[in-house]
Write a structure and sequence with these properties.
Distance between the termini: 29 Å
Strand order of the largest sheet: 2-1-3-5-4
Number of strands: 5
Structural class: alpha/beta
Strand content: 25-35%
Radius of gyration: 17 Å
Length: 141
């Protein structure tokens, strides 16, 4: 029963959501709400009322508030003994580590090279487990 924070577009490749909850990392930034502005934009099919509520939510929350929401999700998930991971290109790892510091660290679970034909330039992807730094420090004592 994991919580996955995935790079944008990866949500289309994960299949069933029966045993995990998925959030795109982009959804924790205010600009993500721009896709809900107006009628069908970027191919997202959504009821007009839900589209409006989503747009209003993002307009009323800034990046700092959305980061706090992300931190709450991580904290609650870890407290409930749920595994929390990030599924991202390796190139995004330093930026995400900085975003999660000083509370959490990202440990490599698995990395792999995506075939060059798939992305035209080949990308190394990884699954990185989110670990509470305080718990790691306690384990070392």
């Amino acid at each position: 029963d994991a919580v996955i924070f995935a790079a944008d577009q990866m949500q289309y490749h994960l299949g069933t959501r029966r045993h995990f909850v998925l959030y795109t990392l982009a959804s924790f930034h205010q600009r993500y709400g721009n896709q809900f502005r107006g009628p069908l934009t970027q191919g997202i099919l959504m009821q007009p009322e839900r589209r409006q509520r989503a747009y209003e939510f993002y307009q009323s929350n800034n990046d700092a508030q959305l980061k706090v929401r992300q931190e709450e999700l991580i904290r609650q998930s870890l407290a409930a003994n749920r595994q929390v991971v990030c599924l991202i290109p390796q190139s995004q790892l330093p930026q995400l580590r900085q975003r999660f510091a000083p509370k959490w660290q990202l440990n490599v679970m698995k990395e792999w090279d995506e075939p060059q034909w798939a992305t035209k330039n080949g990308v190394t992807w990884g699954i990185y487990q989110v670990v509470d730094k305080a718990a790691v420090a306690e384990d070392r004592l």
